[in-house]
Amino acid sequence: MFTSKERDATGLVLSVLHEWDQGNKSARASMLQEFLTRNAGKTSMELELEFAQAGSLFLARITAWMRLTYMFGTYLELQLRALEVFLSAAGSHRYLMEFLEMGGVLTLLEVLGHSQITEKAKTQALHLLRIIANTGRKYKEIICESYGVRAVAECLATACAEETQHTASVLLEALAHGNPRYQQQVYKGLVALLSCNCPKTQQLVLQTVRTVQVIVKTAHLSIVEPLLNLLRSLHLEVQYEAIELIKELQQTEVRPALLRALVTLLKPAREGVCKHKILQDPEMVKMTESLPLFVQQAAAAKVLRMLAEEKQDISEELIHLGVIHHLLCAMGNLEHADTQRQASLALEHFVRSYPVVEEHVRTAMGPALFDCFMHNAELLYMSTDQVQADLLLANKVHILREPEVRNTDS
After folding, report:
1. Which residues 6+ apart lie within 8 Å of 138 measured at CB?
2. Residue 91 region by backbone torsions, left for phi larger than 0, else alpha for psi between -120 and 50, else beta
3. CB burial of residue 236 (10 Å; 0-12, 13-18, 19+)
4. CB under 8 Å to 383, separation ≥6 — which residues?
5. CA–CA distance, 263 with 55 (Å, rounded to integer)
6. Which residues contact 343 (CB under 8 A, 6 or more apart)?
């Protein structure tokens, strides 16, 4: 038997549901606004008290309305915020299961791919997907089985708003944690995103790859090319994240390929760089088109120095790969001062660490230039002239002997 109070509450809820069923979109929007005002932050138990144990009926109506109208963007943000009240409520497992059974996850993923929907709405949809993913492994698998990784990755690649980009990257990271069945799929999706053009997205993806790399432990050769291409970025935050990831990948099976590629970047291929363009100054065209290659060249010299200073075995491996010859060539690039500076600093490490390197470099440079180099390697580029640059570019250094570390004992 229901008490009088329970009958009154049930009657009130039935009245609300009837008003929803009979109302137009404006009336429903007003009801959702009132619902948010009254119920934001409530637990599932409190929501059930509010709806006389019939909260699921209101959840079903919101979900159905969203599924029918999301393509038009009609009150979509409001619908998603109302759904969040149910899905984020403490003890919301039943609501979550009902939402999934109604196709809620698929609809949220479809929202991400719709070009006419606002980024605010997409951010809210990503937030709901994150709530679902954080509920447990089973729910992460459901999202991934629904091609969620691709949908979220594409949303991140095309998003313009930083909040949308950030929320998408956080969701991808969440899908990799505690989800062994699909963590490789997430990792591959992130690697594919390294080729996107937006600097903020590049930074977020690099940060996420660094986190997911720890989870998956192994790395694939497909990461090498897009990662090294990011060294061309003029954005320091992107370069920083790329260099940090390169350093962390030294513990994986792609280390040999990364080191070889970094050494190769010290002598960039420039075929086709200096193409004449109508109504443009050929010298300006040359400078503009060469700049990314030179930025990449300087960054390669910088990261090689950092790697060599950290580990002796990497230093010796780089010497075998011909890094000394390539660094001397980079020092001869009079078109880019930072390349000269970074290459000179890197070479200084090898010269001061290995006598055999010092011997070869002294011979290649000649006594006068070598003395200037040893006096102040960082500022050598300021006094390097064309004759000296040609000498550096034409060097034939090829070290065959096993390098031995200089004895520092007095």
Report:
1. none
2. left
3. exposed
4. 372
5. 63
6. 266, 298, 301, 327, 328, 330, 331, 333
Measured CA to CA, the distance from residue 105 to residue 139 in angstroms comes to: 10
Cβ–Cβ under 8 Å, residues 404 and 356: yes
The set of residues, in sequence order, having a beta carbon less than 8 Å from that of 3 and lying 6+ positions away, is none
Measure the CA–CA gap between 102 and 114, rounded to whole angstroms: 20
pTM score, whole prediction = 0.89
Tokens of 89: 């409520």
| Contact (CB, 8 A) for 162 and 202 | no
**Predicted pLDDT of residue 392:** 96
Are 206 and 238 spatial neighbours (Cβ–Cβ below 8 Å)? yes
Q: What is the rounded distance in angstroms from the CA atom of residue 333 to the CA atom of residue 180?
A: 47
Q: Which two tokens stand for residue 59?
A: 């959840």
Q: What's the rounded Cα separation, in Å, for the pair 318 and 256?
A: 10
AA letter at 348: E
State how far the Cα of 342 lies from the Cα of 262, in Å rounded to an integer.
13
Q: How is the chain split among helix, strand and coil, in percent rounded to 5?
A: 75, 0, 25
Evaluate if residue 274 carries a pLDDT over 60: no
Apex 300 CA angle, 295 and 304, nearest 5:
150
CA 312 to CA 350: how far, in whole Å? 10
Q: How many residues does the chain have?
A: 410
Token pair belonging to 88: 């984020």
pLDDT of residue 121: 97
Tens digit of each residue's pLDDT (9 = 90 or more) over 177-223 = 999 999 999 999 999 999 999 999 999 999 999 999 999 999 999 99
pLDDT tens string 319-344: 999 999 999 999 999 999 999 999 99
Average pLDDT value for residue range 243-248: 97
CA distances to 199, 202, 328, 352 from 386, rounded to whole Å, are 36, 37, 14, 26
- Which residues, including other chains, have CB under 8 Å from residue 60's CB and lie 6 or more apart? 98, 102
